What we know:
By secondary structure, the protein is of the alpha+beta class. The protein is about 50% helix and about 10% strand.
Amino acid sequence: MTEYxxxxxxxxxxxxxxxxxxxxxxxxxxxxxxxxxPLELAPDESFEIPTLTFSKLFRRISDILxxxxxxxxxxxxxxxxxxxxxxxxxxxxxxxxxxMDRATEFxxxxxxxxxxxxxxxxxxxxxxxxxxxxxxxxxxxxxxxSDINLEKQLQIVNSLSMWHRFxxxxxxxxxxIKQVNLMGPPQNDxxxxxxxDCPVVFGQQENALIINASVLEAPxxxxxxxxxxxLQTAPYKLLIIEEEQNSESITDRIHAILxxxxxxxxxxxxxxxxxxxxxxxxxxxxxxxxxxxxxxxKDEHRRDAAIxxxxxxxxxxxxxxxxxxxxxxxxxxxxxxxWTDMTPGEFRKQKQSTL
Length: 355
């Protein structure tokens, strides 16, 4: 099983809450299987811990505090099981928009139980004529509060990233974030960049994610059975970065998308990123991790296709050039020599001499 990692700063955050309420954090750390105390880390230390370990710690502290929000986002305790009931409340909604509407009504009802009259305003906004939608994260405790310290901002980033991944899970597809807006002050070593592979703007009037508005109409793909499986390990799947879950080679995925229809123009870099359902920055980093570039993958794809055609001796080189999308055979000759250091004719002769 692949071991996913996450910053230990998040463990420090929830352990401090337990410590402040009088619980023995050393026992919690030992039960979770941690070999060090995250509370002893310096602010600039970047230790990582297994995500599964954090998930276990998260569930344990939530249980002993009897508060799924850890007292970080509300002025009251959110009893264990609240998220579970919320999930069952929205799982049969037709679209993500409807699920968000219903989740807002649910949250308003919870606040109402504690004497807080919070109007159930949907968490998304869209300006007329815009293709973008703004998903706003706000609670009664932090709405329009510009006095946010770094620890509070860390909690907001964690909540935003988990909310984003929950929406991705609901529709079974990665939701590309175009921009993140945060109310808090800038940070030099901003930990949120690990979760949000897009521009992050600080000092804003709200904490929000900017996405394509069409995502709101995406259908939910899960049922109560798959939801039960999801809840058995929650919040584990909400803590794993989507690209880490996908072990398939990015070059293999590109080859599958490119296919063999060279009569059409191949997708641009940004178009391919969109087809792969990821941001351009994520796409570039995934390629770098595999030691390649999009241009190199395209060239290799066309080279392999050209070699396959040249192995079919009944096809003339001019017809192969046309199949490869070249208007002029000479352009095909130049490209093939660049790829293989041989002209198509030389390659075919060499191939025949070895038969």
